Amino acid sequence: MEYSDLVEVYDALGATSGRLEKETIIAGFLKKLKGNPQWIYLLRGRVLPDYDPREFGISNQLVIKAIAVSFGVKNTDILKKYRKIGDLGEIAEEIAGKKIQGRLFSSKLTVKKVFDNLQKLMNIEGKGTVGKKMGLISELLGQASGKEAKYIVRTLLGQLRVGVADGILRDAIAEAFFAHDKKEMSDKIETAYDMANDFAVVYDAAASGRKDLDKIGITVGRAMNVMLAVKAKDIEDAFRICGKPAAVEHKYDGFRVVINKDGGEVKLFTRRLEEVTKQFPDIVEAVRKNVKGKSFILDSEAVGYDPKTKKYKPFEAISQRIKRKYDIDKLVRDLPVELNIFDVLYIDGKSLMDEGFMARRKILEKIIKSEDYKIKIAKQIVTSSEKEAMDFYKEALKIGEEGIMVKRIDAPYRQGRRVGYMVKLKPSVKDLDLAIVGAEYGSGKRGGMLTSYIVACRDDDKFLEVGKVSSGLKELEQDEGTTYSEMNDLLQPLIISEDGKNVKVKPRIVVSVTYQNVQKSPSYSSGYALRFPRITAYRADRHVRDVATLGDIRKEVGKHTGNSGPGSL
Ligand code: AMP
Description:
With about 575 residues, the chain is of the alpha+beta class. Among the domains are: about 225-425, D-amino Acid Aminotransferase, Chain A, domain 1 (2-Layer Sandwich), CATH 3.30.470; about 430-569, CATH 2.40.50.140. The strands form 4 sheets. Strands 12, 13, 14, 15, 16, 17 and 20 form a 7-stranded antiparallel sheet that branches. Strands 3, 4, 5, 6, 7 and 8 form a 6-stranded mixed sheet that branches. It has a 5-stranded mixed sheet with strand order 1-11-10-2-9, covered by helices on one side. The chain is globular. Bound molecules: adenosine monophosphate. Adenosine monophosphate (AMP) binds near residues 252, 301, 378, 424 and 480.
């Protein structure tokens, strides 16, 4: 396949924000992919499966140099243009477009060539790295047309901006191979993707039929997405969602660790799919010593504690252990962690994904030997009594835990935020429910998406603006909570008018917004402004008629909340 075919797909995707249209465009492309499933990664600007979160890590500087070398232009000229336009993709397009007319021979760039060079870029290490990377990039740019150069540069910089989210790709695979029962197959594809975390594998299976999709399972030793929790309003709500009786567990305030043991090797992954084995030799040791089984996958929360007082610490206190790659021994001593294991997904050759939660818990109890301040099974009760659950909740808060998790006892393990399997309950800081009435397109990583939101309260049937909020949503799908991309998808169909980067939208979307305080302000139509607002939740369950009123806003003027402003978690 020629790269220009893929470029056409990119252009078409970029030109529409309609989800169905995007799915049709992608489905058409997918039908031509047979034999080369890995090219599916290019649709999202990548050359690796999602379980491998590595990025190209190519700087603007390197791209500028590569453009300069490939087209014989001066670095400084490119830099000047960059300062004005701010998009190296467009600059590459312009320069390549001009140069191409003067070219005597030009061989056509193929998808294979682009994919192979991009993949090689990922694996270059050691001496002469920059030179080798430059070589691979210039080889591509040297053969590229204007448009091709634009997308090569955008891919390298991780800014493809054509809007292909997981959900769209899943539905496009369903449309390409199961057009007649797209809805049902889209769910199957979602499950298969959750297991494999690799769209090439899912594509291949889908192309050969429904049975092959069912065969896809989890793989030990590889990063995987985890099950996420929905927020419950209160105990009654939690039972309503998870059924009675339900398992109630302490909610530990640490970070998620997925533990893999495959024969002799233990590997640890975060929820963002990053491997953190080297950072946590203490966890590896505890797992080796206290967990029975040749191979397994465990889901857990690691919680920090003070080595002297043995008091538990909030997550921020130990967050550096995740990132730091040196002085590990000292960190292990100063910031020890205790593992609280709450699930098992695989044991000695058998996937437990489809077993009920209590059956999995029984296995956990058999394979884990608890040792204080090293490794424990999550504290749990199984109850139908709201009172008992409430007492458990209070006890958890009293000893400093974040709250509780309530889990359906017969639920299989499923990745993502599936309604009805597991909910969280914790006291929340003060926030207001507000309607989104306008938005602004972001730039950089958030480019092409509506990522700043004008929020409004209600005054009878009018909506009055109270501020602009651009923080609080999540960047990535695997993060818990609504992502910017999901919010963009929700808002696009609601656009009423556009003015440059700003749009007005029909008031349909409700968000909970926390803030430091409310001040009088002439900038917004309500006459008030929220200071340091941050979205805490997208309230899909609420109607705009239920948002805060102007009266509610007035009541808040001058009051301070627990939100300590920008930078607070
Ligand atoms: P939140 O981060 O507030 O959305 O709450 C969900 C997170 O709580 C999960 O992703 C886990 O990291 C963490 N957690 C703490 N204790 C448990 C538990 N017993 N079961 C499941 N998740 C837990």
